[in-house]
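Hi support team,

I'm opening this ticket because the web form for multi-chain structure prediction keeps timing out on my end. I have pasted the exact lines I submitted so you can reproduce it. The total is 259 residues across two entries, so I didn't expect it to be a heavy job. Is there a limit I'm missing, or should I split the entries? Thanks in advance, R.K.
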Amino acid sequence: MSNLIVFCILLLLGLVIGKFAEKKHLKSIVKREHQLNALPAIASRYPPTGENVGPHQQLLVTGNVVIASDYFKTFLAGLINIFGGRVTPFESLLDRGRREALLRMKSSANAVNAEYIFNVKYQTATIQQKGNGAIEVLAYGTALIPTQQVKA
Amino acid sequence: MLISNLEFLPDQKVIRHIGLVQGSSVRSKHVGRDMMAGLKNIFGGELKGYTELLHDSRIEATERMVEQAKSIGANAVLNVRFSTSSIAAGAAEIFVYGTAVEVADHE
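Hello R.K., no limit was hit. The queue was backed up. Here is the completed structure from your submission:
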């Protein structure tokens, strides 16, 4: 009986706090995405500037985040696993992780005054924790930094 | 040392391909951190301790790769890729690899 009570409390805590934290995180993601909108990050292997690419430097930039699922999501995903179908609780988790990693990469490129980030790659890994879901997302790419001082 | 995940350099010429270089690092957090992470699994959210851990070990793995590249006479590593695998609860291996090349200095 006491086990069931503990389980219900954990489920409720996960549902309430987890949902609140997710909303807060999404809000901050959207806000920072707007701030960094001027810096394009593209998956193309070649710089998009073509012929008018001036003198520049390049730098490998990375951004990573480890993000954990909450108790409620883990439980819900377990339920969905029985019947099959879209595991929406984990979809939103991965989406947040990817966007956060990209934002961190962008802000580190922004700190060195980059103009573009290209050849962007994502990499996702599961960080094992006794069956609970925690994922790491890494985003990396090449930042193109224009160097003005060469112009005389 | 130039490190890039491009396969070419837009304005520099590669004069010699030397070969594959790699660096790896396996790290884990102490038990206290793992317990904190366990708590976070109830509420959800970012595991800052692990984010830092993986970031640091990625830097270390990259340093090891750069050292190896230097020792064989390269001055750039191109087409760099990252790979992660968790090998035990709370421990992860970070692996970085790329092609060591010699590029001609431009200008």
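A quick check on our side: The mean pLDDT of chain B is 85. Let us know if the file doesn't open in your viewer.
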